[in-house]
């Protein structure tokens, strides 16, 4: 796990900018940083050593013939098998690293190597003779890769902050701003800056001295098998296959030359990962985070039950609200783009504490999106299939419509969900998904932005992600695919990457092995969710491995106590950050609406006020440190 940067300078190479670029990624790769120059080209790498810790495996790595160079971020789990294939073709190796296998494989097969790879990665493969750099990104978007075109040249990097030294920005993309305030994150291929964009998951692109070519998809999600098709396995066969594939995936991700452990929240996904890993790693280190002041969201007793059952070396980090609050400034400092998913804070703290014990951690991320584990999935199923629940929502709405509800308690969350369900049943599948993927409605964002007429531009970005095949209305699996295309890479995986890499911790996600994703995604919806259960296939596959209390209980998330903070400890900082005169001069946000939201701090029915204020607070903190300075 590392950080990479590089590119082409149109005129004189700027050595100091290139070196500053890679030094900005030092937390991603604290073990070694190096920049190599090739006339007007450069490649930079910051290394977090995981496999083959010797200096011979450092990057940029050059081929023996001197023609090719590589920088890469990630892990290739099947690199030993690929190495054997290459050795049979006469290729030789000097290290035991997956980096050299990737380099030699790209020399041998070019971009045709990509479908052979099982892992997560973002890489740059430079051909000095042709003066062309091949850039590639893994299927699910686990590792980021940002691109920018500036007056100085054409560049790429693992994070925005690396590219700022090379001319990325400062002109802000208003479509990205709109998406951010509606959803809390920025979907690809957008960047917050006009002259930047993301290479999308499962794509490659060539960079030449004329700039970036057209990105090309090298992987896509499989189509769903039709109900009744002769190629569909029985449900029992699918359970057996899923169990085997998860076990294989976890086993593949245990390869490491440094200490390895696993996150353990006490939910289904992380418990399954630990149940498999603990059988293969004696004294497996596991880690969970507990919240003394938030008992509704505290799952540590379940995590400790699993740890005891499988004999892991378990550590629980017990935090009070003040512990969380004290980490806010440090966490915000790590954000090099606006990102308002407040659960980034506990992920940051968990990563920070876990890094004190291990360098690699397994995680259960991806299980909800792949197997249908969210409450919104149950809501979508009910709208499509359950006339009773639709009728109950209609009956309950007169009682709940005058209350906004909240996520911080059971009753408030139930009111919020009833209202969302009632409103969602009247929308098309696309509009409902877009509404449920967001946090606030279009009207609020339009009132907030001084450049409001951007709905169609945002839709141009979201349509291919939400309904790329045009089957959302007919196929429930298309809803899960939308989560895998949109929410997973640009919210969930972005959060994990930013927060873990800020603490020099590699996080591996076994439930996103591409073989498992392809198999499960193609199975019928009925294997994953029905009127009684979510995530049924994964649970039934591992039911014998987990205590009943784990797979029977309702899913819980974690809500940072934002509103109490804004009413108390953070009130002064919030108002100082959201200085109305300063906002007025920036000419992006409507200061009158910002003032109105601040006045609502003491409202007894705040609704999504906590998100609105947090997104404003994060935005302005980022703007002040990135644009104003």
Radius of gyration: 24 Å
Average pLDDT across residues? Answer: 92
Number of strands: 18
Parts with pLDDT < 50 across at least 5 consecutive residues: none
The CATH architecture of the largest domain is: 4-Layer Sandwich
Our count of domains comes out at: 3
Instruction: Specify the overall morphology.
Output: globular
Helix content: 40-55%
Termini separation: 31 Å
The main sheet comes to: 7 strands, antiparallel
Strand residue percentage: 5-15%
Text of the CATH class of the largest domain: Alpha Beta
CATH superfamily of the largest domain: Aminohydrolase, N-terminal nucleophile (Ntn) domain
Number of helices: 27
Structural class label:
alpha+beta
CATH topology of the largest domain: Glutamine Phosphoribosylpyrophosphate, subunit 1, domain 1
